[in-house]
Write a structure and sequence with these properties.
Layout: E1 3-4, E2 16-22, E3 34-39, E4 45-47, E5 50-51, H1 53-56, H2 74-82, E6 91-95, H3 101-108, E7 114-119, E8 130-134, E9 147-153, H4 162-172, E10 173-184, H5 189-192, E11 204-205, H6 208-218, E12 221-227, H7 239-247, H8 252-256, H9 262-278, H10 283-286, E13 292-298
Parallel strand pairs: 6-7, 6-9, 7-8, 9-10
Antiparallel strand pairs: 1-5, 2-3, 3-4, 4-11, 10-13, 12-13
Helix pairs in contact: 4-6, 7-9
């Protein structure tokens, strides 16, 4: 696994403090615990060191995008649709469109717009109504001022250089055009204490403050940040499971090696029950601490 050390993408500062370390507990291909760090200047949270772009492909196994066009995703697409401006007659780009299913969902429901999708990992889209580009957004060279809406649902936390995407969005948007992104919130229970960020695939973890700083850096205007768990579940469910597990001697290494003993599992089961009760509702979103944020920007 090839790793690289980086400076802060937002302010360029090389200094940071380590928040926590966590292995890839989804694929479990290595015991290495990736440091999740916080810039000591602008407080952007990111993985450092991280896999290089070439090495990162191994963390996205074959079939990663499978099933995205299944009807089970429609409730999420309905929530996303409700956050969009009027689309009639607009030119719309979906970054990380997978196989274009959200764009197809919108078109199938009578929205009359010009649909464009781009994705670095999908081979194409089956819907002939969508113009598809394979590759990364910051190297696609779309015309300046071309789009009325650019959207990215759960994409910007996977990037290696978010600043280039913000800058490119500002370039390709027409005046008055909108950028809408869904990202994870580094200042939530989800991100800080439940350790639910998908490390190392989630390379950057944002906050309302750093989202505003990216707006200033790219000459965009941050209009709104919505804290919401209805598109993806950003509750801190897992906080007590980890806490009681730690008190019983849990460690990531023991979990990765399948060496958790009965008392570890019992403590974590009790913690899981507490999580179920405490996080039964979405009270974190009302306190603007949900693990999921949807930010809307505008090009002046």
């Amino acid at each position: 696994m090839e790793l690289e050390h980086i400076a802060c993408d937002l302010c360029g500062n090389p200094g940071y403090r380590v928040r926590y370390r966590k292995p890839d507990n989804w694929l479990r291909g290595s015991l290495y615990a990736f440091p999740v760090v916080e810039c000591d200047e602008c407080h952007l949270v990111y993985v450092n060191p991280r896999p290089t772009m070439a090495a990162m492909s191994s963390f996205y196994p074959t079939g990663y995008h499978d099933g995205r066009d299944h009807a089970s995703y429609w409730p999420r697409y309905q929530e996303q649709q409700a956050l969009l401006p009027e689309l009639t007659g607009k030119r719309v780009l979906d970054i990380g469109c997978a196989r274009g299913d959200f764009l197809s969902f919108l078109l199938d429901r009578g929205h009359d717009f010009e649909a464009h999708g781009i994705d670095a990992f999908s081979m194409g889209v089956a819907d002939p109504r969508i113009s598809f580009t394979k590759g990364s957004f910051n190297s696609a060279a779309y015309p300046e001022g071309w789009f009325d809406l650019v959207m990215a649902w759960a994409v910007f936390e996977h990037l290696h250089e978010p600043s280039s995407y913000f800058t490119e969005a500002a370039r390709v948007l027409a005046p008055g055009g909108k950028l809408i992104i869904l990202v994870t919130n580094a200042e939530s229970l989800y991100g800080r204490v439940a350790y639910l960020e998908d490390v190392p695939r989630h390379t950057y973890h944002y906050s309302e403050k750093t989202l505003a700083a990216y707006a200033e850096k790219s000459s965009l205007r941050l209009l709104d940040v919505r804290y919401d768990d209805r598109i993806f579940d950003g509750r801190g469910r897992g906080m007590f499971r980890i806490l009681l597990g730690r008190l019983a001697g849990f460690s990531w290494e023991k979990m990765m090696r399948n060496e958790l003993q009965q008392h570890h599992r019992a403590a974590m089961m009790v913690g899981g029950l507490l999580d179920t009760m405490l996080f039964a509702t979405h009270w974190e979103a009302k306190l603007r601490r949900s693990g999921i944020m949807v930010a809307t920007y505008e090009k002046p």
